[in-house]
Amino acid sequence: MAFNFSERKKFGTWRRLWLYLAQAEKSLGLPITDEQIKEMEANLDNIDFKMAAEEEKKLRHDVMAHVHTFAHCCPKAAAIIHLGATSCYVGDNTDLIVLRDGFNLLLPKLARVISRLADFAEAHADLPTLGFTHYQPAQLTTVGKRCCLWIQDLCMDLQNLERARDDLRFRGVKGTTGTQASFLQLFEGDHSKVEELDRLVTAKAGFKRSYMVTGQTYSRKVDIEVLSVLASLGASVHKICTDIRLLANLKEIEEPFEKDQIGSSAMPYKRNPMRSERCCSLARHLMTLVLDPLQTASVQWFERTLDDSANRRVCLAEAFLTADIILSTLQNISEGLVIYPKVIDRRIRQELPFMATENIIMAMVKAGGNRQDCHEKIRVLSQQAAAVVKQEGGDNDFIARVRADPYFSPIHKHLDSLLDPSSFTGRAPQQVAKFLKEEVRPALIPYQNKMGGKIELTL
């Protein structure tokens, strides 16, 4: 990703765009020779960055600096480099290529994260765990089902990134204000040749379509679409890693923790979820970056103003670089998640007695009891048990009280089955299996050959 936004990629792409333009113009009849084309082809990566920097310092124009630098090593082609084009021909078209290639780098990484989490969800599809709403104990779910909530968000992100990439078009060959006037002049008023020139260059750059209308630039709303899906990915990652951080506090699940890793300089026992914290920190930054293209698009006057340029050079690169490292870190987390089933079971046992009260009432009614009498008995016993937990700091002894009360003797032998955690998880295991089979695994098929091995973090 760093190379994708590097100077070498940028200016190398500029030269390729100049080549595509010359090739297309030659094929449509402009007096450009094979020798000139071959000279350009031979110098695509022969970039004298020192000369380009000196030219830009003198000219105060990056595109013309590189036109001169390219012309210096292509003296025979110098006269036809950038013929009919404006700066945005190389600038904007290169940006669109870089954005497309950036998505192509992110998508396999996101697919790998989804794949790792899917394996985790499948392995723990049946493991009951306490659910939380309002971060208060709620009905049981399973570890795998909770993980599927994370996966579903990431699958939406996968779909959104694919759509944003596929929706990208090429700016193409449009001229200074988007009217193609310079090219119409070059081809002596032949509209069909101008349209064909646009089509040829668009195809050479690997795009199926170009924007039919542009100003000097492609619409900056395109950048909004691009950064919006990355911001949405940031929101998903922040939620996932926040859940992991909360579960780490409960000692139910932990991210990978190396043998010699130190959690705190002062407290040797600490096992801080620093990878998840890092993801949350970077995700917040990623989510804020979409504000830049929103404001840029809103203040572009008429066909274009240059106050977009410096801002875009920062926010577009930062968004993709941030998303890239977030996904690398999340992959590392997802490949090494550690669960503690006994801790999970202990927490269930603390809360399950109260959750089982409805089952106990139903069982008593089936055994011939009165629903209202049973409800009152349970209300009294549950409040007594709650007082032990809250006021005395003891364990939940509600079931022990039920066992000791002769009123409940008709169902004493059934209490163990009534308290089986798996009977409280509903269809969670089946939902996991169906979701992974019908939605998740099929979405990963295009990336099967890019799953790679485990990722190690150096920091």
Automatic annotation (TrEMBL):
GO terms for cellular component: cytosol. Residues 352-436 form the Adenylosuccinate lyase C-terminal domain. It holds the Pfam family ADSL_C. It catalyses: N(6)-(1,2-dicarboxyethyl)-AMP = fumarate + AMP; (2S)-2-[5-amino-1-(5-phospho-beta-D-ribosyl)imidazole-4-carboxamido]succinate = 5-amino-1-(5-phospho-beta-D-ribosyl)imidazole-4-carboxamide + fumarate. SUPFAM superfamilies: L-aspartase-like. One of its GO terms (biological process) is 'de novo' IMP biosynthetic process. Pathway: Purine metabolism; IMP biosynthesis via de novo pathway; 5-amino-1-(5-phospho-D-ribosyl)imidazole-4-carboxamide from 5-amino-1-(5-phospho-D-ribosyl)imidazole-4-carboxylate: step 2/2; Purine metabolism; AMP biosynthesis via de novo pathway; AMP from IMP: step 2/2. It comes from the Eukaryota. Keywords: Lyase, Purine biosynthesis. The keyword Calcium does not apply. The keyword Cell wall biogenesis/degradation does not apply. Its EC number is 4.3.2.2. One of its GO terms (molecular function) is (S)-2-(5-amino-1-(5-phospho-D-ribosyl)imidazole-4-carboxamido) succinate lyase (fumarate-forming) activity. Homotetramer. Residues from neighboring subunits contribute catalytic and substrate-binding residues to each active site. Belongs to the lyase 1 family. Adenylosuccinate lyase subfamily. Catalyzes two non-sequential steps in de novo AMP synthesis: converts (S)-2-(5-amino-1-(5-phospho-D-ribosyl)imidazole-4-carboxamido)succinate (SAICAR) to fumarate plus 5-amino-1-(5-phospho-D-ribosyl)imidazole-4-carboxamide, and thereby also contributes to de novo IMP synthesis, and converts succinyladenosine monophosphate (SAMP) to AMP and fumarate. This is Adenylosuccinate lyase. It comes from Chrysolophus pictus. The lineage of its organism: Eukaryota, Metazoa, Chordata, Craniata, Vertebrata.
